[in-house]
Amino acid sequence: MPKPPSTYAARLSEIINVCLDIFSRYGFVSAPIIAEKTGLSDRMVRNYLNDLVDLGVLLYVGEGRYSINFEKLEIVSRIIGLEPRTQLSLDDFVDPNFFKLLESSRVLRERMKKLLDRLGWSTLFVEEVRERIYNEHLPGGIRDLIGDRFIYRHGARRIFLDDIYIGGSSNEYEIENFGVSDFSVLTITYLSSASYIAFYKNDVLVREKCLERAVPDISQFYGKEPFVPEEPFYEMTTDFPELLGLGRKIASRLLSQIAHYKLDIAILEKYGDDIAVYFREGSLFPHGYIVRAKKLVELQRKAYDYFQKLLNVSRKKGVLIAGISFRSYDNIFARTLSDYLGVNLATSSDDHVLNALMDDGDVTALIARGPEKGKPTIQNWYEFYIKCHSQVLKVEFISIGDPWGDYEKLRDFVYSSAIHSPRSKWEAGPGPLLTANVLAARNISELQRTIRGVLRAAFVDYFHKLSTGML
């Protein structure tokens, strides 16, 4: 009896983690080693491995051996930096662009039909199902979806941006390990947050009237207000001695979020009266982690306190804040769609499903978010998806009065300010946010260059003194 798509997807996720472990031990992956480790038959394992080759997770190198696709693994490792966790899933490795490719190529869909059927993805390309998704009328909405359609075709309006400020902010962090001979290891996390307030006149960006800030500011800051002092880096080994591996990633993520909140609060307090909307990269509040280490509990509580302060400032200034995510691992929309239509799409994340279904300017129904384990309970938390150019974005916001009115405002401002990214990291998104992301990344590079130089000089001096008996 064929496995349900959800079971098959879970088994592929399990095999991916086994492959990574085996490759780290042997330098290659083979069916017999996986069969011995998992207790599965050799034939079943080969089926899984072949499917992972089709998905680009593995590369076949000959003589029954496979290698990890390191190009894809590098992308996934960046994602894990943003969302630290111990296990990887199939969704991590399946790029939404894969669904765009399937959408455009019937030949590819036919070649991969068995795999698409096993994962339940073939349903996305059945014309009758797609027509129902586009045209089904939902009086009063369904479950957490608010609206009378699943997807509003070309629902976003292109509005004229004139005499208006739109804000955007982003944060970055990098973790770096340094070794001193065989007796000392130094783990440093670099933090950077940036904000960019864009001014538009006659639908054109006026750079002379735009404002940019990056923290920590390691250059001259005279005349720059507000000035937000920040730590340029944290030395994890001594500041956080009880945290190892995953704990340090979570600590870095929380420290980065705290710095991000502090910058946004300062910006909105000074300039909020003039800003129409403010876009923040990522979720408004980081996905919940069940943490027990004292340091992590303290950081999580501190992040929540600054999150509340940001909400208070935004309400006081009347600024609508939205979190913009370029990759979503939720499947609320996909599960609702699956249950309503009696099809199985729930093995895919929302952005996978929507990449196959949406065109430029399409917008989903408004989605009401309920409580999430490990996250604070916030009232009036909503989200929706919009496709700008070829990028599906998730937009989160906390309504400041009229959820549907806020939805329409954000929908049109996101679409109207969207540009193609100057970096290869993202394809398209709100211009002020993408600019802030570039500023934060540039600041991280400067921090790393400076601190590496300082440490290198300190290590050379230390070894010189050690070798000459001066210590």
Task: Describe the structure in your own words.
The chain is of the alpha+beta class and 471 residues long. It has two domains: 5-94, Winged helix-like DNA-binding domain superfamily/Winged helix DNA-binding domain (Arc Repressor Mutant, subunit A); 164-326 and 358-446, 2-Layer Sandwich (archaeoglobus fulgidus dsm 4304 fold). Helices cover 46% and strands 22% of the residues. It contains 16 helices and 16 strands. Strands 4, 5, 6, 7, 8, 9, 10, 11, 12, 13 and 14 form an eleven-stranded mixed beta sheet that branches. Strands 1-3-2 form a three-stranded antiparallel beta sheet. It has a two-stranded antiparallel ribbon with strand order 15-16. Strand 5 and strand 6 (184-201) form a beta hairpin. Helix 1 (5-26) crosses helix 2 (31-38), helix 2 crosses helix 3 (42-54) and helix 6 packs parallel to helix 14 (350-357).
In summary, what is this structure?
The protein is an alpha+beta fold and 471 residues long. Helices cover 46% and strands 22% of the residues.
**CATH architecture designation of the largest domain:** 2-Layer Sandwich
Q: In the residues, how many domains can be counted?
A: 2
Q: Which word captures the global form?
A: globular
Which CATH top level class of the largest domain fits? Alpha Beta
Major sheet: 11 strands, mixed
Number-wise, the strands total 16
How much helix, percentage-wise, in residues? 40-55%
